[in-house]
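We modelled the chain as a single entity of 545 amino acids. Its sequence is:
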Amino acid sequence: MLAIALLLAAAAVGHGLAQWLRLPPTPMLVLAGIGLARFRLVPGELLEEALILGVTFLLFVTGLELDPGRVRAQKRAALRVGLLQFVTLGGAGLLAALTLGLDGLSALYVALALTASSTLVIVRLLQRRRQLFEPAARLVLGVLLLQDVLVIALVPVLTALPAGVLPGLRGMAGTLVLIVLARACSRWLAPLILRISRDEELVLLSALTVLFLFIGLSALFDLPLVTGAFLAGVGLSRFPISGVIRPQLGSISDFFTAIFFTALGAIVPVPALADLGRALALALVVIVLTPPIVAVVAERYGFSARQSIESGLLLSQTSEISLVVGLYGLLAQQIDAGVFSIIAMVTVLTMVLTPFLATDRVVWWLTRHHPAPAIVPTEGLPESGHVLLLGTGTTGLPLLETILGAGYRVVVVDDDPAVIARLREADVPCIRGDATDPAVLRQANADRAYVISSTIRRPEDNRRLLDFARGVPVFVRVFDEQDAGWIEAMGGIPVVYSEATADAMLAWFDRERSRLDERLGERVEGRPAAGRSASETDGKTTAAG
């Protein structure tokens, strides 16, 4: 019990340091674990059990974030991006590991570890930036799902590789069975749990039952326990059951995350100087190769250059599943502690760097240095009475088509070369530049426009626009009431962007409408059944506008 108390105390110290220094908690938890290991008061067996328990629950929560239905619209792009990134990073990682002096099996473990990106880090960043329902975010989630499934499927193959091909094939077959069961769980069992369970606690208990059932099947198939945990999460990731489970697991998830990274720090040896150099080189491989791989393929599927670059930066790290790869190699005694420490250092380093690399400032800088030539026309722009669109991308294009169809003159300002190229092909007057730059606003004659629509991501970046174009109606996209109040006080017209949340609810309602009709019956107290109008019940036809 004393050892457990010390482990928890170290985790608390790590969290406290992270808050005090305003740093991500992961490196502080690892450092707290390293400090704890210096006293040698926690047995190695306890640390290994804490690691297995922590990572099992961690991957269950990771699976809950990866609803396959959420990425259906970006399925083809996610498949191409994910496969290309997986193969390229795996091959580059294998070559780099061999070049750095690792043996063949250790190099394979390192290569597989480099192919997975962190779902927890990326989802939290997307949630914080309110981008989770944007098309580019759905692409990233699709890539994450593909990566995780591939790595989870290959872990038992890799651990069984020294024993021959047949055990590896059995491991892959067992994983495929669990994938099929996860699909069945998502389609039938999850909705059944919601129908039967009348309160949130019962739903949570049912979800934990599914988790331990999948873990038991993993043990039965001689698979790593984390395989079942991850696929159990995927099986319960479908809306709306994931929305019921996720809030209740918040504190528990934070607890097991803290235990996992603290135990990880305590079990990883202090790296030798040579291993530290290898880790830095491998981290550089991930950070340098991932953005261009993702950006090139995503642009070919219609994503803007800015969205593609941001997606690549978000995916430029290894993940908690990378640690699983190294952990199982270490427990199987197929890699030594030095190789495991290399994998752990690459993961921690790239996780810490991601929030600093995937920022608007870095994305804009890379977008401005996009190989496409800058297009800044100085002639042919209307001097007044035009509709000015600041930013188009995926969300603004339907608005542009509507305005052009209505016969209005339009000018578009966007900093994305891919968007500008498409607009130029369609003969739409446009300027490639920063919509917050007064020089660009003057060139677009913003102060003499008929109306302005701004989809600039951060509301505060509209300050210069609202000062420059006083007297012109300026519609600004915002994400919450607080931002709406600020824009209104500055003289703009806020438009709250709430469609993303409604889409998920309406999609669920459409899927469940027939079941709801059956439950409600044809009429309830003389009213028509859900999903039907009174005129439809009477055999008449109406038109809704």
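As a brief sanity check on the tokenised model: Residues 522-545 have pLDDT under 50 and may be disordered. DSSP finds 24 helices and eight strands in the chain.
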